[in-house]
Write a structure and sequence with these properties.
Layout (H helix, E strand, L loop, with lengths): L1 E5 L3 H13 L3 E5 L2 H10 L4 E5 L7 H10 L6 E5 L4 H9 L4 E4 L4 H14 L7 E4 L2 E4 L4 E4 L2 E3 L3 H12 L7 H8 L10 H13 L8 E4 L3 E4 L6
Parallel strand pairs: 1-2, 1-3, 3-4, 4-5
Antiparallel strand pairs: 6-7, 7-8, 8-9, 10-11
């Protein structure tokens, strides 16, 4: 899942980026409102973490602009202001949740997971596909009761495909949500990770769940023609 962090505090933004990447998120960062709107106009984000007090275009205006432009991506607003009127203003501007600084990173993760499960379709925390079980909260994966160890990026790829289960998901769509803006779309990185997942998820004797549709993309599930 790909997240946009909009935060001008260098130390805090660095900590957020590091923590989110360690939890299998792809992360882009904007230090101001102008840059945030530019990135949101060209990239598909699954969630936005938006600071209220930004230089130039403030967080409230960024939130209003995104909603006015039809962007329905969940927005978690961060602020040092803890007054009720400030929370109301942020929520009325279109934010989905509100977190006051200073905060515990585990709470931010929990709130972000909750937002991502709600939009655009309510998603369960635990996803089961045949005998494959994916716990998106603990990032634990098992198949036929056998624990499967995955790297952060392998888990991110599996989680995204699982949220689109039984759909053929295009290469462009996958890379837009699983990798950040530094990813080279012309590289074969996606194919490398798909092959790694196959070795872990589709072991000999298990029903294949990862399928390639040439020229179209990849599907996680048991296709009708299986």
């Amino acid at each position: 899942m790909r997240i946009l962090i909009v935060e001008d505090d260098v130390k805090l933004s660095s900590l957020l980026q590091k923590g989110l990447r360690e939890n299998s998120y792809a992360v882009d960062h904007a230090s101001g409102g102008d840059q945030a709107l530019e990135l949101a106009a060209v990239n598909q984000y699954d969630g936005v973490i938006l600071d209220l007090g930004l230089p130039g275009i403030g967080g409230i205006e960024v939130c209003k602009t995104l909603r006015h432009e039809g962007v329905s991506t969940p927005i978690l607003m961060l602020t040092a202001r803890d007054g009720v009127p400030d929370r109301v203003t942020g929520l009325d501007a279109g934010a989905d949740d509100y977190l006051t600084k200073p905060f515990d990173f585990s709470e931010l993760l929990a709130r972000l997971r909750a937002l991502l499960r709600r939009a655009p379709v309510v998603q369960p925390r635990v996803i089961a596909i045949d005998d494959l079980v994916i716990d998106t909260g603990s990032q634990r994966v098992s198949r036929a009761g056998v624990p499967i160890e995955l790297t952060a990026k392998e888990f991110a790829l599996l989680e995204y495909l699982s949220r689109r289960r039984d759909e053929v998901v295009s290469r462009a769509d996958i890379t837009a949500h699983v990798w950040d803006e530094n990813h080279d779309p012309a590289s074969n990185t996606l194919e490398v990770y798909i092959n790694r997942l196959r070795r872990r998820i589709d072991r000999e004797g298990w029903t294949p769940l990862i399928h390639t549709r040439r020229g179209a993309g990849y599907l996680l599930g048991i296709p009708p023609d299986a």
